[in-house]
Amino acid sequence: MGSRLLKLWMLIALLVLTAWSPAANRMTADAGQGPHFSSIGPLTFGPDGTLFAADPQAAAIFAVDLGAFATGGAPGAKDIPAIDRKIAAMLGTDAREIAVTDLAVHPRTHNAFMSVMRGQGAGAAPVLLRIDGAARIEMVALQNLKYSKVTLPNAPDVNSTNPRNTRTQSVTDMAFVDGRLFVAGLSNEEFSSKLRSLPYPFSSADRGTSVEIFHGNHGQLETRSPVYAFVPYTVNNTPHLIAGYVCTPLVKFPVSSLTPGAKVRGTTIAELGNRNRPLDMVLYRKDGKEFLLMSNNSRGVMKIPTARFGDAAAITSPVAGETQGLPYETITTMKGIEQLDLLDAQNSLVLARAETGTLNLEVVPLP
Amino acid sequence: MTPRPALLAALVCALAIGAACSRPSAGSPDGPSVRLTLPPDGAGRAFIEVVGLSSDDLRALSAARRTTEQWTALLRVSVGGEAPPMLGTYSVTRSALRFTPAFPLDPGRQYETRVDLAGLPRAAGNGPRSGVLVTTVSRPAMTTTPSTVVARVYPSADVLPQNQLRFYIQFSGPMGLRAGLDHVHLVDEHGREVEDPFLPLNAELWDADRTRYTIFVDPGRVKTGLLPQQQLGPSLQSGRTYTLVIDREWRDAAGLPLKEPFRRTFRVGPSDEEPIQPEAWMIAAPARGTRDPLLVTFPEPLDHGLLLRSLGVSYASGARLDGQSRVEARETRWVFVPHAPWRAGEYRLVVLSILEDLAGNQIGRPFEVDRFDEIDDAEPKTIFRPFKVGSRQ
After folding, report:
1. Phi and psi for B17 in degrees, rounded to 5?
2. Which of A288, A296, B200, B220 has its CB 3.0 to 4.6 Å from that of B228, i.e. a possible disulfide?
3. Does B41 touch chain A (CB under 8 A)?
């Protein structure tokens, strides 16, 4: 191609349009009885006890009315040593053949719900379990439960003969805030960490919004690093999300900023250490003060007072040491925490990996 | 999650057995025994049955209403030892008491069945009716010879930019559930392993059939001023040579290790911070009346995964063209063969703006620039490059 032709292309041939948008790529919502999961991942509860469960393989979120499973069991949850072995045995297999994908506590019964994948590869089966205050483990029979479902938009694909679309969308965390479900997701192809805000009840008409989030610390540079865990929190009467990233900056965003097209730039209020990523976050009150409890993959469980979340100075320059910003305390008694949720006003519920390799369900007093 | 298909299969089996065993039976002279029945064609669920019961025994069993706990007390199936009973459903057919597990039995695993003989409804009958009948059943083990291999690693180029963003590891078969990142290493030319070169995620990035694994090089290690780069340095450095090493110990869907470890050595060149420029692509238009391939050649390799779905062909009217496409020449060429011969006239190469090069640069937008715009993926931006069939460009 000659240079004259090249210029011609640059002048007239590059048409940027938004018209190539097949209807199949729209977000869809439906409802029915007996939700069918192809996989099961993150769980979170709405305040009325609706269970939101992600099906990462199908890029879908189910809102499940737990029916009889929202009552009936002994209230609360109880320690179960080697719960991975017990669950695996109930499912007819070995602990190495199951993967616990999340743990969430019902807001009224305080029973624990666990999402588990049983088996390997294409034969892996999703399982939802309830653990009650008598340490009874039950598989939640889904066939009679009512649900609604939202399917996230498919991957754009202009190649009508692509033999197989290899793109998938993982859901990494969810939280319910003021009638909206916030869903953090990652694609296995495009490098984008999206936070999607979906209205609930789900509606095909309202596609929700999705934004990419930056955090603008380290000398005004931004990064699109994925959000690993987040929790809703009201700062100065304004709803916010508190989010954790890899190498552990703690970042706050006003929920109102999470609208399409908006510049969503977080304020870094703490740097909590490198070579680390957050796993779960819960908020609780103790002795008249409020704290954020955050589990991490390599730096244990951190207890961070929230009192200064509103007025903490934004960190905008490179951190000289390992940490900066808000102070925190490492809870040395909580080790190997792989899943963390709030059980009640006094206790957390955790899945802790013991040195022997077994996974224990433990009720741990809030520190 | 629901065992409904299994229940249906069990019901069908029960009806079939019922039809075949319609005559009253006095039971086996040897007393009850346990057998495992596997679905003949691999479809449906295997089930475990207590056979050798008389018609009267079965009628009594069928008439009694029992809770799951009561059924379990009668026939307990477990993985053995002190393990809790397995989840499943109980039914009574014309010839047996049947347990259908909620999930398929693992090949090669031993399952223990315990039948409380004294708990059976009729104390009279053939054979012993006291004590516990303990039996072990198992499905045949599957092959124990590892066969899964790393089929390809993308990108295929020998030289990658310092800010290389991702690798796709393509396996020959589906892989297991366990986290994979610990099995992937980056080793420099001196044999030293690069520390934490990849972005750790709370999710494993697989395609739907679990044969392709995506790993991202931590972008924070590329960008000057970010904490990971300050504390750990860049993952890849221009002018150096690295080897991507994949451990044999990574388990496939059958729980077996890979057939062999995998190594791919590549050199690293300067960072690529230039956006993709479709105007620099060479389009070799085919001749009319033929099904010759349309060849689109790029001046640099582009991302393999995104190439597969970011390029298409349409008529000038906008209607899509059907055909077969492939990526070749180390991700520097996209080839499209239409199902029907090319007609003379105008066509468009359709390009989604999500296309990225090896460093994550998109069309008209380098990776590191702010992206504070609409990103809802239901309406991807589309770029058209017209071309003509009938006269070579």
Report:
1. -65, -40
2. B220
3. no
When scoring A7, A98, A223 by the number of chain B Cβ atoms within 10 A, the one with the most, hence best to mutate, is A223
B167, B223: one domain: yes
Q: Are B249 and B183 in contact (CB under 8 A)?
A: yes
Interval A79-118: pLDDT, tens:
999 999 999 999 999 998 999 999 999 999 999 999 999 9
B362 Cα to chain A: minimum distance (Å): 10
Which residue in the set B251, B305, B380 is minimally distant from A167, CB to CB? B305
Q: Read off the pLDDT of each residue in B82-108 and give the average, rounded to a whole number.
A: 94
First to last CA, chain B: 56
Residue A189 phi, psi dihedral angles, 5° rounding: -125, -75
**In the predicted structure, residue A238 carries a pLDDT above the cut 60:** yes
Q: If residue B237 lies in a helix (H) or strand (E), which one and from where to where?
A: none
Tokens, residue B1: 């999650």
Q: Which of chain B's residues have a Cβ under 8 Å away from the Cβ of A229?
A: 202
Same domain, B36 and B162: no
Residues B32 and B75 both lie in one domain = yes
CB contact under 8 A, A223 and B219: yes
| B133/B155 same-domain check | no
How many angstroms separate the Cα of A161 from the Cα of each of A138, B7, B306?
45, 38, 14
Residue B329 to residue B327: CA distance in whole angstroms: 7
Contact assessment for residue A273 and residue B231, using Cβ atoms and an 8 Å cutoff: no
Spell out which residues of chain A touch residue B383, defining contact as CB-CB under 8 Å: 14-16
Contact criterion met (CB < 8 Å) for A125 and B278: no
My answer on whether B287 and B214 are in the same domain is no
Q: How far is CA A128 from CA A29, A101, A140, A191, B171, in A?
A: 22, 10, 6, 30, 30
Same domain (yes/no): B265, B290: no
What sections of A182-318 are H helices per DSSP?
Answer: none
CATH no. for residue B385? Answer: 2.60.40.1220
Query: Residue B245: pLDDT above 50?
Result: yes
- Quote ipTM for the complex: 0.84
Report yes or no: B318 and A18 within 8 Å, Cβ to Cβ: no
Cα–Cα distances (Å) from B216 to A227, A228, B87, B310, in that order, read 15, 15, 39, 20
Q: Which of B351, B356, B357 is nearest to B380 (CA)?
A: B351
281-340 in B: which are within 8 Å (CB) of A? 282, 303, 305-306, 308-312, 318, 320-325
> Residue B58 and residue B93: Cα distance in Å, rounded?
8
User: Minimum mean pLDDT among A208-212, A235-239, B144-148, B194-198: which range?
Assistant: A208-212
User: Are B116 and B183 in a shared domain?
Assistant: no
B145 within some domain: no
Q: Are B142 and B254 in contact (CB under 8 A)?
A: yes
Q: What is the pLDDT of residue A312?
A: 84
Q: Count how many pairs of residues, chain A against chain B, have C-beta atoms within 8 Å.
A: 291
At A330, is the secondary structure helix, strand, or coil? strand
Distance from CA of A287 to the nearest CA of B (A): 33
Helix (H) or strand (E) holding B350: strand B345-352
pLDDT digits (tens, 9 = 90+) for A131-151: 999 999 999 999 999 999 998
Query: Inter-chain contact B177–A186, Cβ cutoff 8 Å?
Result: no
Tell me the C-alpha distance between B170 and B149, whole Å: 9
Same domain assignment for residues B83 and B205: no
Structure tokens at A153: 């938009």
**Residues B119-128, mean pLDDT to the nearest whole number:** 59
Q: Count CA atoms closer than 13 A to B376's CA, side-chain side.
A: 20
The range of the structural domain enclosing residue B374 comes to: 278-389
Residue tagged 């066939």 (tokens): A143
Task: Residue window 330-389, chain B: list those with CB within 8 Å of chain A.
Answer: 350-354, 356, 360, 367, 370-386
Number of domains in chain B: 3
